[in-house]
Amino acid sequence: MRIDLHAHSTASDGTDTPAELVLAATGAGLDVVALTDHDTVRGHGEAIAALPAGLTLVTGAELSCRLDGVGVHMLAYLFDPEEPEFARERELVRDDRTPRARTMVGKLQDLGVDVTWEQVARIAGDGSVGRPHIATALVELGVVDTVSDAFTPDWLADGGRAYAEKHELDPFEAVRLVKAAGGVTVLAHPAAVKRGRCVSESTLAELAGAGLDGIEVDHMDHDTDTRARLRGLAAELGLLTTGSSDYHGSRKTCRLGEYTTDPEIYGEITRRATGAFPVPGAGGRER
Hints:
By secondary structure, the protein is an alpha/beta fold. The chain is built from ten helices and eight strands.
């Protein structure tokens, strides 16, 4: 089995619609794909409706968290999307995305960048607006060459010149909320130092003690030595280890299935989940 547990659609900051994403996953030879848009489950229905035979969908989300000034992304899988407390928290995070993005556009204008809110809104479309949309605008304007180049202290990185804060969850609270909704938690790209400061190993140990299920080890932002270190740390802490592409369509260079999760790990994730179940494809009801 080929299993990719981290992918985004136009419901947040990917460039493939949810329907296009599941078709692309089949084309990439995947057996299982997780739709983990930022702080939203809005794309799940479309993805399920278009799910091809032979592909299984894991419903999920990537939660925006922050601890002591460090940005943390928490992957949540197979939770009950209707659980009230967790649904309210996701809504608070989503609602703060637009004011935050407007603030960042204003900061870029103050820095002399000829970006407009209308341009960013066009790029975001119906998606939950975020920094990748603003980064895409910077690429369009020729300010940077790639989306990744915008995530530096000069521009949009945490603490960067055009950075603005938004409402984000405490990662310990995120673990609690996901667990209460019957889901499973995996810390996304925990050592992606190119993105900015990362949580310490002691914090990872505390999160494990609080119920964190796993960490994403095989990821494009982790080099070989980092993966080996994380795998050893996970073994010490009793954490599951996953591998994922973090696919964003054409917005990033990573390919669906570029990194994958061991089938035994996937089986353990599904065994732990009680809020929802993986959805097997039935040929797709919409095209």
